[in-house]
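Sorry to interrupt, but I need a hand with the structure work. It will help me judge whether the discrete encoding reads sensibly. Write everything out right here, beneath this request:
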Amino acid sequence: MPEKLFKVNTEEYILPGNRACQGCGLTLAYRYILKALRGNTIMTVPASCLTVLHGLYPITSVEVPCLNCTFASTAASASGLVAGLAALNRSDTTVVAMAGDGGTFDIGIQALSGAAERSTDFIYVCYDNEAYMNTGTQRSSATPAGALTTTTPVLTKQQGKKDMMKIMEGHDIPYLATCTPSFPLDLYDKFVKAKRIKGTRYIQIATPCPPGWVYPPKDTVKIGRLAVETGIVVLYEIENGKFRFTGRSKTLAEKGNPAPVINFVERQGRFKKMSMEQLGHLQRWVNSRWAEYLKRAEAS
């Protein structure tokens, strides 16, 4: 059963002060992830914004051990940690591999696919801010069509976003979920559940990014909520093949439909060059995917 608000772990595992950007959605997400996992965790992260948040050895703002690995080897290093803990009979420690969309959708997909195929026992977390933000907002395969990046400076990105959830579902792993720090209790509940499941678990976090998405830092929670309200982000989980809406998306599925995507797009500078054709295509894609999810939920 999901933990209720008054049962959320009150311990803090991120200390005040870190090197993340003002209004960073990743910081909000990471706070609740560590609360849900209750600290008995070993992290492994590649070059990413999360590396910046952790800080440089021996000074860190995070009270869990963390292994820094190469960009392509996040899931491989997690597999090594799992093997090492098994050799020490430390089955109570949760291994968490956490990378951005560039390190997951692109550079790290090989090691992740291999680990998932073997059902290695760890939680893999992709914080999806839809570009290579740590190195200056270059496009990734998670960047939506119509967005500006430093590697698409004249024309916007022309290709749509890769559906990494479908790719990971194809590995027949026991648990997948989506979430966003803008709905922290939904995020918290999913990590509590994932901790109790064995095998490879994959959680994708839609993570608003003020400098990369170009909006005021004070609006991070609002932007994340709009992503869900418009159906750009859908909150759900797939447990042993069974699809289920969660949180605000469950309410929308039961009582209404998502709002127009322009409500989300118009608040971000990264979409200032999006064409009406691209906007229309994005709306049709959202509508089509929403209808597909409704059918899956009914069938489950």
